[in-house]
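Continued from yesterday's entry.
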Amino acid sequence: MAHEEFLKQAGNDDGIIFCVKEEVEKFKRILIESSDVEQNIIIIKNIELFSNDIFDLVSTRQKLIISGDVNKAIFKEKILAKKYLTNILFSSLGNMDVPDLEKYEGFVMSETLQGKTTLHN
């Protein structure tokens, strides 16, 4: 479902590797066997549903998008310990506080940007 929604919004999934709970073994196989996986963007949907080994497989990747409730992930501390170039949060997480947000708003934090962002149709 997440993959189909992404395709609907983005138009294609070139260079994207999705990780969803229903296809964990396929995802692991792709990461281990693919020679050009470093050039792809990895999206993990609903991070709170996964075990520690998935995060260990992707934690060194530079092109990583983690989606879901990080506060419920069993490896939350590992996620928070990783340095990301950009964070987009929808609620406070660890030592990263966000202001009050409206529906469909997020808070972007990077070295050069900080502020609210929103989805538009």
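--- second protein ---
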Amino acid sequence: MKRKWFVALGMSFVAAIALAAGGSTILIDDFDDGNSDGWEERDFSEAQNGVFEVSSGAYVLRTTAPIPITDLGVGTLDADWEASEGEPRYANGTMRGIIRANTDGTTVGFSMRENHEFETAYGFWGSTSFGTFYIDRFDLFDPDGPQTIIAMADPEEFPFEVGVTYILEASLDGHKLTLKAWPIDEEEPSQVILSLHDREFDPESGTGLAVLAFFDPLPLSMQGVTEVEVNATVDDLEFIPAHKD
């Protein structure tokens, strides 16, 4: 999904996912095979210095040098899971996995209901520059700007910090969106962080699932930051359909 600024867990982890939703758990990728086969990798930054690599059994998306925050592509590194394209089962459900921002300024998370014809999606992110988690609606051709943040957590209550590994759980079911996240070394909370209804993109609007890393220029500019080296890690990615086939 092209963004512009005018824009180790074991069986207990898998079992917890399987109990959390109606459908059977689908392994997206645990990267234990040492490669990123099945992912379409795209660098949307103007710098074009992005690297996608599997390192120590995890997926790393990074730039090889800092990028100015004026970059129109906001340093976006986008990896689309090809198996989800055009498959209705992926329009409703929960995408869950491990995320970590390895550098200050990096935002990382999941994009769901992606549509590459109209360049639309919902995004579920941890942002080091905002210092917390948020959900956005992305529409590249929206005249008011592609990114609309539709929910954001309180950074004092739900911080997202560089170098800390989190489990992120992003869910879509009809028009309901939820986000849950917590540090990997803590117990899973009983409540989600964010929950809302949004009617902009219905389940027929797209099915694509993706992981992305980029930066949020507005808070960075307010902090006086002029450039960011994007670097994020994701791992143990799963999807649970909201409804049984």
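Residues 49 and 65 are 7 Å apart (CA to CA). DSSP finds two helices and 17 strands in the chain. Will compare against the first tomorrow.
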